[in-house]
Amino acid sequence: MKTTRRMFLAGATALGAGSLIIGPTGKLGRAFAQDGKTLSFAAAGTVTSSWDPSSHTVAPQITAEGFLFGHLTKCPMTPENPGEILPDLAVEWKVIDPFTLEYKLRQGVTFHDGKEFKAEDVKATYEYASQPSRPASAWYPGQVEVEIVDDYTVRLKTEKFGYPALNFWYVSAFLPILSAKDVGNPDVLKQRPNGTGAFRYEATKGDQIIFKAFDKFHEGKPQIETVLWNYVPDANTRVLGLLNGQYHLTERLEPEQFASLSKEANITTQRGLSSENKYLHFRCNKPPFDDVRVRLAAVHAIDRDQVLAVVGDAGQASNCHISPVKFGYTDVATYPKFDPELSQKLLAEAGFPKGQGLPEIEYITSVGFYPKTREYGELITAMLQEQGFPVKLTTLEPAAWEEQLYRRADGQGPGHIVDVGWITGSPEPDLVLRPNYLSKFALINGVSDPEIDASLDKERNAASTDERLKILQTETLPLIAAKVPSVSLFSSVFLRAMSKNLQGVYFYPNGPIDLSKATLA
Predict the structure, then answer these.
(1) What is the CATH number of the domain that holds 394?
(2) Structure confidence at residue 216 (pLDDT)
(3) Residue 210: helix, strand or coil by DSSP?
(4) Of the N and C termini of the chain, which has fewer Cβ atoms inside 10 Å?
(5) Residue 186 — very low, low, confident or very high, per pLDDT cuts 50/70/90?
(6) Residue 361 and residue 247 share a domain
């Protein structure tokens, strides 16, 4: 029997918004572009109003920036070799002393506006973006000075700011390099991206962004001429668009969709462990989660095995606040486990026996970006309610949910519990740990804990990678697990699908997609 779009939509209606299951016949008519020059990507998330990479920590925009910007190095972040570093805009790098790293830069690279890439651009980028006033300064280990040795040699210097330069060893693979000319004019930087990447920004039309192949890309002009970035928040719509030829590539599929698309003759599916963990962040700077006992009571009320059963192929069990592709990952033996009796004991100790006296607790989550958030959100809500937590679940589309994530100017954030993933393009663990758990940042949960701060500074300031690894695994990560500003539910596994005509794509574990060598038949 031929499967039709009407049948797909009927199935989606019967199963619920996040549960479109595809028929086995694969007979939908497809209209993939035949000229091989234009690729249409259905993205699950949108970008912010600013193209300045130092202005945000938004995962979908980082994916978009991956088409546009270069970095000093690249980290493929495979589970087999998470610490591998490859050249990008730098061709050599070495430690000069504990507070100095030297990078030899690639020659013959140009920005999209025609400016030649030189040492001045690295200096301008790093000194600008590492300023504490920049919203994304949490990505940086701290402020940094950049010494220009010559046009193609720079030295990152950190002694003035009191931490080892080795902290940039992995981070340099994640920090986009800007033009010094643009850094000098923030309004231009905000309005139009100008990188050295394989594609250049052309225009934005509503929910669609147009990228064009950069003919002076240092690795050679891409064969795909145009990339259309389409913001499509609904997973069903992304799948239908892939099947009917509107899109060539899509991301963040539901597990049922992934399984069904895997049976489609003209579709290729891709499953990969990501650098993202999924968290429930507690708003630690307002009641009732300003009390660690209440936070622990909530964590002990949640059966993460049941959550993982709902998530299916889109998750991997983990007892750690960082992903297995991160430096320092370990299975924390003391990670809080499902224990309803201990949950009740902690609630009573905190003055809320069986939950009596707790205020209404708002749990904020998204639908359409991460797989199964509504389903496991409802499950977690029921688990918490069973232990006496008066939880109300609020589900929002990605754009509205992003507006609720971060703390506001007064230090507070909406709601009490927030479901969010945190993903970065480097094995560096501090890209997760410092933005989320260091008191001066704590971008979502607002935790202020001197013990956590001291441990984060201790591991950052370690004299060697071996010493740092030991501190992370035996002190820092167990401490965060004991204080639970958030609970890591699982490590995310990315589920993607694309036209079989699309070849040569590389997917980074943090979301960006390398199309520089891709072909579209």
Answers:
(1) 3.10.105.10
(2) 98
(3) strand
(4) N
(5) confident
(6) no
- Which residue among 165, 191, 217 closes a domain? 191
For the chain, what is the domain count? Answer: 3
Stretch 90-119: mean pLDDT: 98
Report long-range pairs for 350-355 (Cβ below 8 Å, ≥24 apart): 350/288, 350/291, 350/293, 350/294, 350/297, 352/288, 352/294, 352/388, 354/387, 354/388, 355/387, 355/388, 355/389, 355/390
Using pLDDT thresholds of 50, 70 and 90, give the confidence band for residue 7: very low
User: Do residues 322 and 338 both lie within one domain?
Assistant: yes
Of residues 189, 431, 248, 253, the one with CA closest to residue 325: 431
Percent of residues, the chain, with pLDDT higher than 90: 88
Asked whether residue 510 is domain-assigned, the answer is: yes
Question: Does 285 fall in a domain?
Answer: yes
pLDDT score recorded for residue 79: 81
* Euclidean distance between CA atoms 233 and 205, whole angstroms: 16
- Average pLDDT on 3-11 reads 36
Residue 313 is given by DSSP the state G
- Domain membership of residue 5 (yes or no) is no
Helix (H) or strand (E) holding 75: none
Q: Identify the three-state secondary structure at position 342.
A: helix
Cis amide bond preceding 288, omega within 30: yes
Q: How far apart are CA 311 and CA 316, in angstroms?
A: 9
pLDDT at 466 over 80: yes
Q: What is the pLDDT of residue 35?
A: 63
Read off the pTM.
Answer: 0.86
Q: What share of the chain is helix, strand, coil (3-state, %, to 5)?
A: 30, 25, 45
User: With contact defined as beta carbons under 8 Å apart, do 238 and 247 qualify?
Assistant: yes
